[in-house]
Write a structure and sequence with these properties.
This protein has 446 residues and is mainly beta. It has a single domain, classed as Porin, CATH 2.40.160.10. 11% of the residues lie in helices and 48% in strands. The chain contains four helices and 26 strands. Strands 6-8-9-11-12-15-16-17-18-19-20-21-22-23-24-26 form a 16-stranded antiparallel β-barrel. The protein has a three-stranded antiparallel beta sheet with strand order 1-2-3. The radius of gyration is 35 Å and the shape is globular. The two termini are 68 Å apart.
């Protein structure tokens, strides 16, 4: 018999034919908010009928989800309506409709979130690398902090979006940090001093705009190094060029347009241009840089070549910078080497840096590393130097490594030679001084 009004259940949002003569068990009836001891109930003409009536539902205000239609996979969401001519019944029905609309909105928002996540992939990565160093300056010995031993401490935000048709947009924001002080390090006034660029990539290759390296030219030392940052380029200075330099052009600079071709049969070509005029320029700064590079990477072999030319005439800066490099992994050990020659401005002697490194795995995460480097300044008497680094690393996991390294340099009387193992290569000793250092540190990437 039908349950009497005002407590007759109906499903107004669902076609009647879906429920007509639909049999329901006692459990299914109870699941819809009714209490009955009847063994069988049916839905006829959108109303609920039971074999016998026991108790009326005590809580008619409930939200129901209908079962799947046999002919479709869509889910219909229905509400409970109370048939009543009373004001209380009308208010209860109104409140039920409001709750149902909020429920549908929540489902719609939740369904949209995964689509947003797929369209825009954003990640946070970086590294923290710091340690302690016993430093002998040639005139004094003392302990000091040391950063960037194996890798540069940094915080990186990057992301990409699939635009369809094989086209993808991407961005990178790369900030160098000093973990010993918790401050930003690098170029003053530049938040993301290691990179801040946006790009488009597809079958044609990749185009990047913003603060960036002009090409792989500036990374040939890191590509070939077998001792991580300890194997980056050495630097040299002299009495007429007291600030040591490695002769690079276009490293982490502003206003860069960079093109990277697809890698075909191991070969890739890059072209980069740095516009020397920023957005606030009122005249031509005549400081443009044009950089062209090529690389071959196939299996254990990598070969790199690049040349950059600058319009700048600032004393002590490079006018041209040419670099070559190669690496090879033999399995039992790997080797790498690179050479850079820079023609300098204002009668400062041309600089040549040559460097070689090797790595030998010892098992159980241990590895032995060695670096040897030389530098020379043309037309400067005794304007040359050399140095080496040797040490071990122990990988505790894929992300965490501890290391110990010894570095020593020999600067002739006309030169000041330095390597990354000496305070990260960021400072220059006096001309003719031979500093050395022992470094212990921890490197963690994320």
């Amino acid at each position: 018999m039908p349950l009497p009004s005002p407590l007759v259940r109906s499903w107004p949002g669902t076609p009647k034919r879906t429920h007509a003569n639909t049999a329901l068990s006692r459990r299914e009836v109870s699941g819809r908010g009714w209490r009955t001891s009847a063994s069988r109930c049916t839905i006829q003409e959108s109303s609920l009928f039971c074999d016998k009536k026991k108790k009326k539902a005590r809580n008619p205000l409930r939200t129901l989800e209908s079962s799947k239609d046999n002919s479709t996979s869509a889910q219909a969401v229905s509400s409970v309506t109370i048939r009543s001519n009373t004001l209380a019944g009308w208010l209860i029905n109104l409140l039920g409709d409001v709750l149902m609309k909020k429920h549908i909105l929540a489902i719609a928002v939740a369904s949209a979130l995964p689509a947003i996540a797929v369209a825009q992939n954003v990640s946070i990565s970086g590294a923290i690398d710091t340690g302690i160093q016993s430093y002998d300056s040639g005139t004094d010995t003392y302990l000091k902090s040391f950063d960037h031993g194996l890798t540069t401490s940094r915080l990186v935000f990057s992301g990409s979006e699939d635009l369809g048709g094989g086209l993808k947009a991407s961005f990178t924001l790369d900030m160098r940090v000093n973990p010993t002080t918790g401050t930003q390090s690098g170029t003053t006034g530049s938040s993301f001093n290691r990179g801040a660029f946006v790009g488009l990539s597809g079958g044609f290759g990749t185009i990047q705009l913003g603060q960036n390296d002009t090409t792989i030219n500036q990374d040939i030392d890191s590509k070939t190094s077998q001792a991580a940052n300890f194997g980056l380029s050495a630097s040299i200075g002299a009495s007429n060029a007291p600030t040591a330099t490695n002769g690079e052009l276009g490293s982490d600079v502003a206003n860069v347009i960079r093109y990277i071709s697809p890698r075909i049969n191991g070969v890739q070509v890059e072209v980069g241009f740095q516009n020397g005029n920023g957005s606030s320029a009122t005249a031509d700064a005549k400081a443009d840089v044009l950089d062209i590079a090529a690389s071959y990477e196939q299996g254990p072999l990598g070969i790199y070549v690049a040349r950059a030319d600058s319009d700048a005439t600032t004393a002590g800066t490079a006018r041209t910078s040419t670099a070559f490099g190669a690496k090879y992994d033999l399995g039992v050990f790997s080797v790498g080497a690179f050479s850079r020659k820079a023609e300098m401005n204002n009668n400062v002697g041309d600089i040549t840096i040559n460097q070689a490194s090797a790595r030998m795995p010892l098992g159980d995460g241990l590895a032995l590393h060695g670096v040897y480097a030389t530098g020379k300044i043309k037309d400067v008497s005794n304007g040359k130097g050399s140095g080496f680094s040797v040490g071990v690393t122990k990988a505790l996991s894929k992300r965490t490594t501890v290391y110990g390294m010894f570095t020593e340099v020999d600067s002739k009387s006309g030169a000041s030679f330095t390597m990354p193992g000496l305070n990260g290569g960021s400072s220059t000793a006096a001309v003719g001084v031979d500093p050395k250092a022992v470094t212990l540190g921890i490197s963690h990437t994320f």
